[in-house]
């Protein structure tokens, strides 16, 4: 039974009598209703598929402003490009349907808000995320994070005070960029919510091993990807951004031109922003910290292997993120391909040559990193995720299923032993 006082508040919020309200599903920090849960059919029998309805006028106005920014189009585009995001969004759709049908089936597979294939109403997604909490509807969570950054709406979002937006980019042989919010300025160390994440195919390291320079085409493609990301920075009013460049730029003679380009593109949004080249040791430490953050500490010590395009980092560390030993080897899938694997498929002599290079580099790495001390091995990057997909016989790549998946030591061998 809904409290009569709550219904009166909702009526004032909506400017009309609410219909079919089952409960207040979300309260703002000030105690006012923000989202109501409604019956699948109104009292007059009219179907009403929107299970969670955004009622607070400040939140609805903020959601409407978001809808004018092109965010829904950008989210829909990401659903087509990111299989992991699409899978999580579909699970939100299925959860929404199951919860609604448990009250009263409507005989339809349509949920609300455009789920599961597109985004057509942010009000619905925001209401869903506010009602169910973070982790159920990924795009709803992103939109809620944006409301938390809106001065007009921030006070009505639980846990939103003192937040800022953080943009991150990792530029190795591919460019990955990510937008997270919120990070609390007051010392709260909760994990940030993922707002946007993309990979761009910018072969920054292509040809560096042979020529010692970044190719003009690689710099141009990186500029195009950064320009796309800069639009996201403007859209979400990002306050800080960090772009790190790794193996390819460490080795390139013309890296100054690359950094000048990043300063031009990023600096136009956030003055003074520019990519920074990090050492192999720092790359190893960052890889380790990112990899073990979600792991059970009982599995420590960990060895993290980050097999990139131009280099491979091998790191031994403890559960508290302390790195015990690390080594950055100048071998990676792009560098090895350019150096040894010139045929498609590679010939037996080419494979033998590649194996010899790997053995030589690993022999040095294993003198530095005592991997035998590890209880758990963790693999990062595309080669590792591909091996996991092969080991689990995936017909289609599913990022959500691969993340934190376990691969028995020899389960990949039948897939690759012929190479």
UniProtKB/TrEMBL annotation:
Organism domain of life: Bacteria
Protein name in the entry: Ppx/GppA phosphatase N-terminal domain-containing protein
SUPFAM superfamilies in the record: Actin-like ATPase domain
Residue span(s) of domain Ppx/GppA phosphatase N-terminal: 205-400
UniProt GO molecular function: pyrophosphatase activity
Transmembrane parts of this sequence: none
InterPro entries per the UniProt record, alphabetical: ATPase_NBD, DUF501, GppA/Ppx_hydrolase, Ppx_GppA_N
């Amino acid at each position: 039974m809904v409290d009569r006082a709550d219904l009166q508040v909702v009526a004032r919020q909506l400017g009309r009598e609410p219909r079919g309200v089952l409960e207040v599903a979300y309260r703002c920090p000030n105690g006012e209703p923000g989202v109501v849960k409604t019956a699948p059919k109104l009292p007059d029998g009219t179907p009403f598929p929107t299970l969670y309805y955004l009622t607070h006028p400040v939140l609805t106005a903020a959601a409407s402003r978001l809808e004018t920014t092109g965010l829904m189009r950008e989210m829909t585009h990401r659903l087509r490009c990111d299989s992991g995001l699409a899978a999580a969004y579909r699970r939100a759709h299925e959860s929404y349907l199951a919860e609604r049908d448990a009250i009263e089936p409507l005989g339809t597979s349509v949920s609300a808000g455009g789920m599961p294939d597109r985004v057509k109403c942010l009000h619905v997604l925001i209401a869903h995320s506010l009602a169910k909490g973070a982790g159920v509807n990924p795009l709803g969570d992103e939109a809620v994070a944006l409301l938390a950054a809106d001065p007009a709406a921030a006070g009505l979002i639980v846990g939103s005070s003192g937040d800022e937006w953080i943009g991150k980019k990792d530029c190795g042989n591919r460019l990955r960029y990510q937008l997270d919010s919120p990070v609390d300025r007051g010392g709260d160390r909760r994990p940030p919510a993922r707002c946007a994440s993309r990979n761009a195919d910018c072969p920054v390291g292509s040809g560096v091993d042979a020529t010692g320079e970044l190719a003009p085409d690689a710099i141009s493609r990186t500029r195009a990807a950064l320009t796309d990301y800069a639009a996201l920075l403007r859209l979400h009013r990002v306050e800080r951004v960090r772009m790190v460049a790794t193996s390819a730029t460490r080795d390139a003679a013309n890296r100054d031109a690359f950094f000048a380009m990043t300063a031009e593109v990023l600096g136009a949004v956030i003055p003074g922003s520019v990519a920074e080249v990090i050492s192999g040791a720092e790359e190893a430490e960052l890889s380790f910290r990112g990899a073990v953050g979600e792991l059970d500490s009982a599995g420590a010590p960990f060895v993290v292997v980050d097999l990139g395009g131009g280099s491979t980092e091998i790191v031994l560390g403890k559960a508290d993120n302390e790195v015990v030993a690390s080594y950055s080897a100048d071998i990676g899938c792009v560098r090895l391909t350019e150096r040894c694997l010139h045929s498609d498929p590679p010939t037996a002599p080419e494979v033998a040559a590649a194996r010899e290079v790997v053995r030589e580099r690993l022999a040095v790495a294993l003198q530095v990193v005592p991997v035998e001390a590890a209880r758990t091995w963790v693999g990062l990057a595309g080669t590792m995720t591909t091996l996991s997909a092969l080991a689990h016989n995936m017909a289609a790549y599913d990022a959500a299923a691969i993340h934190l998946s376990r691969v028995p030591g020899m389960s990949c061998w039948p897939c690759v032993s012929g190479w």
